[in-house]
Design a protein that fits this description.
Blueprint: H1 4-15, H2 23-38, E1 42-51, H3 54-73, H4 77-96, E2 108-118, E3 126-133, H5 151-175, H6 185-204, H7 211-229, E4 236-243, H8 251-259, E5 267-273, E6 279-286, E7 292-293, H9 296-306, E8 314-318, H10 325-330, E9 334-341, H11 361-379
Amino acid sequence: MTDPLEHIKHLAQTIGPRPSTKEGERQAADYIAGKLAGFGFVVKQEPFKSVRSSGHVYGSIYLLTLIGFLAAAGGAPSLGLLLEGIAFVALLGENTTALRLASTLIPKGRSQNVVARLVPRELPRRRLVIAAHYDSARSGLMFHPRLVRNYRLTFVLTMFCLIALIVVSLIEVLLKETGLWFFGVPLAVVVAYSFLVQLHREVFYRHVAGANGNAAGVAVALSLAEGLSTDAPIDTEVLVVATGCQEVGMVGMDSFLKRHRDELERAWIINLDYVGAGQVCYLTKQGMILSRKAGKELREMAERVARVPGVTVKPATFSVAGTDAEPALLRGLQAMTVMGLRGGLPVNFHWSTDTLENVDPDTVDTTYRFVEAMVRRLIA
């Protein structure tokens, strides 16, 4: 079997950074598709359109909020309330992938999902989806090792300030009093800070090599595919899905779920993300705003495998950022993410140190053995 580190090396070092919708991402898709075809999978690349950066989305939302505040301060609280309300709905919708209001107005590029099928020996009764995104993230000040622990706190604080600005504007409208906008000044300052951080990220920071995030996840998925190809399941169809544009709002997984919704009602979806360093964990709950439990069947299977002597995988919750399991969980599907964590965070999360040299082969191997044990029990 191919050493997973060879896949990581090719993606993170030979190709290097893989920005969403850009050439590096396309090269990675071709590499992954070629490997899966070589394992005997039936492979398709499914195109979709996506925003090129999450900064474009969230920066626009924060800017709209500030325009709403200025409108209220200028004596038009009704207009301010409308703009702030739209910004809040857009922020909630983008974060949960439930409503991509902001994304519809932002110029997009072309990306693709790699979808590979291993046909079972008999008619399939279930489907197993092994997913991993292959694009890499743009770094930013918010991901500095000294600041990244406050990433979710800053996001939640910004959302709170946006809600509070709506309340201030609403009170102004109801009381017909236009002088209350002054109470929104400190709230607007927080939103302005978040806008400037997004702008600073777009101007001054580049995309990382993404060895841990998420070449390692792709490498484990490819190794699992190679192993399954030599012993196809009897009545479970296996899909290996490498998603693009995860780092700009889980757009690739969203596209896959919409295109294949009829096939996934009785599917297990195991998502691999940041499994190149840290303590390997299966996420029992995840979500920055709305916490969702992992699929019951997958959670119970993970618990069973984790109890086997010698297995060092642990349960964990994760609320720092989104993963590709969340759009599936939002739709009520059986999904779960496996992730490497250190101090509750992915290692070298969206930072320049996310390179091949900082990948831990033991973490990669532990992830492979754990997920392989889960898969073999699920398809038995």
